[in-house]
Amino acid sequence: MDSQTDSILFLTDEGDKPARIGFSITVGAAHYYLTSLQLAPGETRAINIRDLRDAQVADFQGNKIPASATDGSVNWVRLDSVSVAGRLIVIQKQQGMASNYDCTTCYCPAVFTALAVAPGSFGLIPLAYENMGSTATYHSCNTGNYYYDVTAGSSWSSNNTPVIQMDSTVHYRADAKSAGTANVSGGYTDCFQFDTNPDLDCPCITYHTYTASGAGDVQVPARLVHHDYSPCAPGGVGPLQILLNASVVDCSGTTHFTNQCGVNRNLMYQLVDTTGSAFALAYSIKEAFSNFSTTNSALTVPAAVTASIPAGGLTGDYQFVGFTYPTCLGSNDHDSYTQTFTVTVGGSNYNLSTVVSISLGKFNGTAEDNVNITTP
Q: Exposure check for the chain: N or C terminus, fewer CB within 10 A?
């Protein structure tokens, strides 16, 4: 397949029932699958191989046909006992020639051999949901595997319905109800063995049901706990920094202020759920300050910041008080305040139980940055 050559597969359903088709393209070690190809009775479908390649759409395994591919193999197989005719036409434009290929090696459809459910594991918050998917594996007589999306035709269930319940309308949708864990199982039944007697048109003689499951974890964000981030914040609490014409730099390496004279301490937290397990989903966190008091009116309450935290990430913070050099803290310039947090996940807000009490500055000439965290 080059600039002057096109390859088109024509498939025709010759029966009076829909026909599912297993389809694959192989280019070297790369395999590409279509998993939802179905023909209506009497339908002829033209599949342009160049269009599939140039679209660069990933299949269910994340694979694509290499964009530079010029040759390979196209394979298709029936998944139902319905007569299907197929031919691959290779058209050479400049020469005005067309080659016609029809190679049939399997008399009966491919047989159902396995089921996979995706995602294999997933996290949710209450009232959120996960759309499950199931893919059947079919094995043809020439030892090739083909795959088909059977999500809609699968049966779905949860082993812990107070935590995750399958939706009554969209039956493959897992609806989170409350904190906890649950396995969501999918089951599908199809033909495992056909009668290969050529006089009988491949009736199924053995059906089999395969099941697979995905593990769901429903979490409710609850509180922040110190998390070791050495050497910046050992045990989650960094050493006292006395800054003299220096920058305020947090544990991520981000510089917040330059040419500062004051005190700072870096902190690192992990968000945990109501069971104390690390919160696995991405979230945003917003801080709020209250009970502010100061001995110097030039010192003001910190600006509240909202940060986006990726899935599995940590929440960093810094506690700084001071002035732009050469102005420095007086011998008794200090302030104190209370810090609280709100986490947002999937549009839902959660007020954390964490309360951080902070007092920092100079106390009778001694630099201090005291951080006391409580997590009721």
A: C
